[in-house]
Amino acid sequence: MALVDGGAVPLRVPEGAAGPAVLVKNLYLSCDPYMRGRMRDFHGSYIPPFKPGSVIEGLGVARVVDSTHPGFVAGDIVSGMTGWEEYSLIDKPEQLNKIQQSDIPLSYHLGLLGMPGFTAYVGFYEICSPKKGEFVFVSAASGAVGQIVGQLAKLHGCYVVGSAGTNEKVELLKDKFGFDAAFNYKEEPDLTAALKRYFPEGIDIYFENVGGPMLDAVLLNMRMHGRIAVCGMVSQHGMTDPAGIHNLFCLVPKRISMKGFIQSDYINLFPQFLDYMTKHYKDGKIAYLEDMSIGLENAPAAFVGLFSGGALCFGCINCLSSYFDHGISSSDVQCLKDLKQSLIDPNILENDLEIKSRWNFTDIGDNGGICGFTGVECWHPNENRVLSLRLGNLGLEGPFPRGLELCASMTTLDLSGNNFSGPLSEHISEQMPYVSFLDLSNNSFSVRKRNCELPAINLSRLISFNVAENSLFGPIPDSLQSFPAANFMGNPGLCGAPLDKKCKKRFRVWIHVRLVRIREMFVRIQKPLHRINDASIIGTSAGFILGFVVAFYFPHKLFCGRLQPYTFRVCG
Ligand SMILES: NC(=O)c1ccc[n+]([C@@H]2O[C@H](COP(=O)([O-])OP(=O)(O)OC[C@H]3O[C@@H](n4cnc5c(N)ncnc54)[C@H](OP(=O)(O)O)[C@@H]3O)[C@@H](O)[C@H]2O)c1
C-alpha cells in the first residue's frame, strides 16, 4: 500500500460520464479483515481481488459534493462502497444508502449500523437459531462483529463467553459489552481445556470468526445439536497454506450444523436490522466501540493492526480520529460552556467580541449548533461533536481551560499565541486521550510549584506537539522527546532531549541529602549537648537549618515558574 498525491481534482462529476454518478468527499473509511482476501490474486471468492496500482475499495461514509443522479443532491450523507481516497467518483450510486439518522455518530454506519452490525444480526438470528438459556461462544469477540453478537446473545437470554487477544479487550468484553465471561486466548496453553472450564456443560452456539486451532478446540466442546455459524476465519487470511481442522468428525455424533454465510445474501433484512439496532442503541441496551486512525497516511498501519490485534476494537479511518460513546453531543456542549467560563477574553473590552459573546448557547439545539462557533470544527455540521478547537491568536487569557475532557472526540487543540498562564493540567493524557495535534506554544504556561516539572504527557495518538515560548520547567518526558527541539524552545527551564541542554542533578535531592546529614550530625552531637544542656547551641543549630531552608529551599518552592534565571539553576 502506498499513499499518492493525486493532485487537484475538479469537484464536479465530469461531463460526458457514462451514466449518472456522484462525487463524494469521504468522511470515514472502514478497515475490514475481508479486504485482506482481496489482496491475493484469487478469483474464486465472492468478491474479486483489488487491481494492483488502483485505489483500494472499501466501505465508507461520505458527503455528496456533486451529483448527476436524481436520487442524490449535494450535502446528502451516504454510506456504501467508496475508495480509500479523499474524494471518490461513484459510478454506481444505486448501491449507496442515504443516512437519515442525525443523532447517531456517522461512523457507526460502518460498524454498529453497517456491514459488521448486519453480519452479527443475520449470523446470530438467521444462522444460529438461538434459544433462551443456550451457551454461546464468540471468538474475536471484541471485533466489530463479535462485540455485537455477544450483546445480541445476551439480549436473547443466552450465556455468553468471548475470546480476545489482550487482557484489556477481555475486561472490555465483560465490563462494557456485558459478556458473562471472557478469556485471553493467547494466555491459554490448552484451548480445549479453557473452553471446558468456561462451558462445563458444552457449547450450543459457536460464532466462528477466527478458524484454526480455536475451531478445533470448539468442536471438541460442542453439545448435541449445536450450531456453528462460520462468519470468518481471520487467523487464516494471510496464509498460503491454511491450517487443517482435525476434529470435524465431531459434527457427526453430535449432529452439529456448521454453516458459512455472507451477510449480503440477506440484504432484504437490512431495514428491519436498522430499526432493531437503532432502537436498542438508543435505549442504551447495546454499546459500541470503534478504534479510529487519523488520516489516510495511517491507513496501512490501521489495516495491519487488524491482524496483529493492535486495534482495540473495530478499525476505522478518518481524516482525524476518535472514540465514541453515548451522549457525546451534550457533553461537548458542556465542554465548550466550561471552557468559555474559564476564559478571560480581553477582546470584550475592545469591543471585538470573540468567544465570550459569539459562543452563544441559548439556541444551539442538538443538531450542530456549536459547529458555527469561532474556532470550533465539528465531525459533522449537524452533530454537536467537536473535532477541533482552533483558538490560536485570539488574545485569550486565563488558566489552562477547564472541561476539555468533555470534548471526548476532540483530536486537535490549538491554544497557541494567547496569554494563557498558570500550570499546565497534570491530567492532559486522561483529559483528551485522542488528541493528535496539540499546540500550546506562545503562552505563559508554567508548571506546578509542587514539583516544578512538566507533567507526564502520554498521548498515544500525538502527531504534533508544541509548547515553545512558555515558562515551563524540568526534564522533557520521554514520551515527548521525538518532537523537534524548536517545539520546546523559549522555555528557559526545560532540559533534556530533544534540547541540547542536559538536565542537572536535582537540587531537591541535594538539599534533602544535606538536611539528612545535618540531622545525623545533630543526633551525633545530641548526647554531649544533652550533658551540657546548652540551649544556646541547640538554638544555633536550629537557626542554621532554618536559615538554610529559607535561603535555598523556599525560593525553589515558591518562585519556580516566576523567577526564571534563579529557579532555572534550582530546578535544572
Ligand atoms: N461472512 C460475512 O459476511 C462477514 C462479514 C464481515 C466480517 N466477516 C468476518 O468476520 C470476522 C470478524 O470480522 P470483524 O470485522 O469483526 O473483525 P475486526 O473488528 O477487524 O477484528 C479482527 C480481530 O480478529 C482478531 N484476530 C486477528 N488475527 C487473529 C488470529 N490470527 N487469531 C485469532 N484472532 C485474530 C484480532 O483480535 P484479537 O486481538 O482479539 O485477536 C482482531 O482485532 C472476520 O473473519 C471477517 O472476515 C464476515
From TrEMBL:
Keywords, comma-separated and alphabetical: Oxidoreductase
Pfam families xref list: ADH_N_2, ADH_zinc_N, LRR_1
Domain (Enoyl reductase (ER)) spans: 2-312
Q: What protein is this chain from?
A: Putative NADP-dependent oxidoreductase P1
Question: Which organism is this protein's natural source?
Answer: Aegilops tauschii
Quaternary context: Homodimer.
Q: Which GO terms describe its molecular function?
A: oxidoreductase activity, acting on the CH-CH group of donors, NAD or NADP as acceptor
Establish whether keyword Oxidoreductase is in the entry: yes
